Amino acid sequence: MSTNLDQVVALEVSLPDSGRVEVTDTLRPIAHALNGHGDSVAADIFWVSLDTAVIAVVDSTTGETLGKTVGTGRLQASVGLLRSNPLSVAVITHLDSLQALGAPRDTIIVSAPDSLSDSLQVQLFATPAIASSRRVIFSAVTFPASGPLVTFVPNDSVLSNSAGVATAQLRLSAGGALPDSVIVTARVQRPDGTPLPGAATFVVEFQP
Question: Percent of the chain beyond pLDDT 70?
Answer without folding.
Answer: 93
